[in-house]
Amino acid sequence: MTSSLILQLVAFTIFFAFCTYVCIVADPDESHAARFFIGTIPSKICSGFELIFGKRIVSKFEKLLDRSLQIVYLVVVLGSWSIVFAYGYPAIEKSRHISSNHKYAGYLVFIMCMSSWHYACQIRPGNITNRTLPLFDHYEYDNLLYTNRLCPTLKIRKLARSKYDRFSKMHVPRFDHFCGWLNQAVGEQNYRWFLLFLMVHVCMCFYGSWAMSKVLYGEVLDKNLLHATFFNAVTGAEVQADYFIIFHYLFMKYFQICGVFILMSVMSVVLGMFLTFHLYIASRNMTTNEFFKWQSIRRWHRKEKDKFAKALAEGKISSDTGVSSIVVAVSDRISDVDVGCTGPTVAGTVNEGIPEDEVIDPGPLPGNIYE
Least buried of 79, 128, 184, 371, by fewest C-beta within 10 Å? Predict the structure, then answer.
């Protein structure tokens, strides 16, 4: 049974890692696996559904898919809380190692969790129109990421730090990213609610992990499992306790509680890192959109600098070659790609507008005027 459990854990880990790589980490433009699983397969399925059910039914289904992450959120969160209420609370009531008052604290955390998600979903990021332009026009153009030009979609002046969001079909002021868990863009007027949503959920996961760990560790102490003798159900042989056997015992006896504990522990780390990232860029007065654009510009600048230094060393150009302004070289080549929670949906945001055989000295890298 032990080897079977190990194989199951290994299989789950490999499957989870593969799904994470294909769906989140890999770039579909560069990874054949990512392009196949999140591009080719869904496209083939949609084409098949259109032939069977017609375009009208498929269109309604696609609208439902737009809220798929919200549905996943509700299933995971409400399902986890249901387990806590049904299995965790009775265990807390019986345990001598955690106060029963934490049941009431749990209700408060649950209300805060759902309320923060509700408000983050409902409060809009702001919408730039001809009428609301003066309301959001309070950032100057840096003439690098943002230039004074028209939005090609809505034909209105594209304010600095704004971006057209094709999902909501709005021009969003101080655009940060599109959040599938909220099914809306995060921008100037709802970023604080997005941060509150993140903070509440990070606290919830840490608190839930701690509470469930107290229940499980209390079981280990009360039954003296560290010094207990177990019996192999298949062979009948006596087995001395070790950490893996104790984990196996707890997992089999308290499967629901252990499942919630593992989920909350993992999400504590993931959401904690995500919150740390947003607190970092907020402290530098940056958005997710700008953070990844600056990363792309730095990569381009480093590449052009290296190319210029190599050409200079090989004698292909002279040292008195003029410096090309990075603003002129890059500003027209920065594309407004979709930006999600983990960054741009395609790799890089600076288009390949300069031929590989052309050598320029991009000069010094300008600073971010919004910091």
Answer: 371
In 3D space, the residue among 276, 282, 293, 353 whose CA is nearest the CA of residue 160 turns out to be: 293
- Give the rounded distance of the alpha carbon of 172 from its chain centre: 20
Helix (H, G, I), strand (E, B) or coil at 12: helix
- Residue 137 CA to residue 102 CA, distance in Å, equals 48
Q: What is the DSSP letter of 225?
A: G
Give phi and psi for 361, each to the nearest 5. Answer: -100, 110
Cβ partners under 8 Å of residue 257, min gap 6:
83, 87, 88, 91, 212, 215, 216
Amino acid present at 113: C
DSSP helix/strand/coil, 317: coil
H or E element in which residue 209 lies: helix 191-222
Cα–Cα distance measured from residue 124 to residue 363, given in angstroms and rounded to the nearest whole number: 41
Stretch among 85-89, 136-140, 218-222, 324-328 having the lowest mean pLDDT: 324-328
Phi first, then psi: give them for residue 282, nearest 5 degrees.
-65, -35
What would the pLDDT profile of 137-147 be if each residue is shown by its tens digit? 999 998 888 88
Cα 222 from Cα 91, distance rounded (Å): 13
Distance CA 141, CA 144 (A): 8
pLDDT above 90: residue 88: yes
Q: DSSP letters of 305-338? A: HHHHHHHHHTTSS-TTPPBPPHHHHHGGGB----
Q: Rounded to the nearest 5 degrees, what angle is found at the Cα of 201, between the Cα atoms of 276 and 263?
A: 100
